[in-house]
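Hi R.,

Here's the chain you asked about this morning:
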Amino acid sequence: MKRQLISPNLKLIAATASLAVLVLQGCVPIVAAGVGTGVAATIDRRPYGTQVTDNEIEIKLGNQISSKFGDTRARVVVTSFNRWVLLTGQTADEAGKAEAERMARAYPNVAQVFNELTVGWPASLTTRSNDTLITSNLKARLINTDGISANDIKVVTERNTAFLMGLVTQREASIAVDVARTTKGVERVVQVFQIISDEEAKRLSPPPAGDQSAPAATPR
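And the predicted structure, written out as tokens:
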């Protein structure tokens, strides 16, 4: 079998494109090396340990639910931010919706569960692609909006409903909701924000790049 050779320039273009996608999603990662592993952490107000826990919840709980229902009975998306879990997608019946929530509430380290599953056929590939486009457009608008940091806001879109998660002040939440409501394709906005004070936001926010004097956020 012949191997296709890729020039260094093409590799550079591909890497740049991948980084651009991460930036639009608000997930510019820091890679922290562990013992034989690498763990990606985003630059936001969560302590590093909480980010690791959120990542584990999304992957392991998501796998458990998928194993329970299979692809034909449900499509459940698990999103975790600061141990608050959002369930989106579809289940075949109300019993499946309730069971997915029960599994989420029983999972270790989960503090809150928001069950936004709907009953019906799983969303089509076209619908999911449109949701991905809405998410990207909304994140891009948040990046360009004064008064908020897009890194502190996680966006999930399901059938034209935009779900907003994050550790934000009331003012930041209001700004983000206004941006979401005026984003093309968004028909409904659901807040899953954890509201914090201005003082708490300042304490938890990462220091500016290159600022070695700013104190690190204290883990909660």
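Helices lie at 8-24, 48-73, 94-106, 125-143, 170-181, 198-204.

Let me know if you need anything else.
M.
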